[in-house]
Design a protein that fits this description.
231 residues; 6 strands
Length: 231
């Protein structure tokens, strides 16, 4: 058991551990342009932050009246995203420090993401985070993506941890809602600053309104230590 009294930590991937949203936006922009939608903006993309890729393209199909099957759109976006992810994904430095600090303390760690298994594997590999994060759950492996709690509950199951002993790190409102629904505590690090007042974030045990600019590994670790002592 770690020095944090049995706490396990579950990380969201995109926008939390790594700055992958620019790649997701570019993959989405190129995909939609190929299907006749040339004006997909960053503001449009922000609406999908924290939502699984499959649910995103399903919404595209409805919103833009696309004739292509969801499976085709999904494959097209994933192909473009993987091309970008393998060469230009950056881990947030303080998040990397936090992962290394927790791993050094023997804290059970997992990733629970709305990305495909292939995308998760590619990102963890190219950033070197796969050395610490070996328990991985994709929304593709469960019945419902975030804001449903499925990915977090499956991560807890694979870690052999009670949901009440898990702390989630999330950047998006649907993920914070999913953590709350799973009965887990949450450290919220909003990717979109304008969404920090979303009611879903109000359920977080620790809300860093300044996002990654405010997050530090030491402050997060100290908060976990206080949580462990209070348990």
């Amino acid at each position: 058991m770690s020095t944090l009294g049995g706490i396990s930590v579950v990380f969201d991937l995109d926008g939390t551990l790594v700055d992958s949203e620019p790649n997701y936006y570019e993959a989405g922009r190129r995909t939609l342009a190929a299907y006749g939608v040339p004006d997909f903006t960053w503001a449009d993309h922000e609406e999908y932050v924290g939502i699984s890729t499959q649910e995103t393209v399903a919404d595209w199909k409805r919103r833009y009246g696309l004739r292509a099957p969801v499976e085709e759109l999904l494959a097209a976006k994933n192909r473009r995203y993987l091309e970008l992810a393998r060469t230009s994904t950056r881990a947030y430095p303080e998040m990397r420090k936090f992962v290394e600090l927790l791993a050094g303390e023997g804290v059970p760690l997992a990733v629970a993401s709305g990305s495909s298994p292939q995308a998760i594997e590619a990102i963890l590999s190219c950033t070197g985070l796969d050395a610490y994060l070996r328990t991985v759950v994709s929304a593709d492996e469960v019945a419902h993506g975030k804001p449903a709690p499925d990915v977090f509950l499956e991560a807890a199951r694979r870690l052999g941890a009670s949901p009440a002993d898990c702390v989630v790190l999330e950047d998006a409102a649907p993920g914070a809602a999913a953590a709350h629904a799973a009965g887990m505590r949450c450290i919220a690090v909003p990717y979109v600053a304008g969404q920090a007042d979303a009611p879903e974030f109000a359920t977080a045990g620790l809300l860093l309104r300044g996002g990654q600019a405010e997050f530090t590994a030491r402050a997060a670790y100290d908060w976990l230590t206080r949580e462990a002592r209070a348990s």
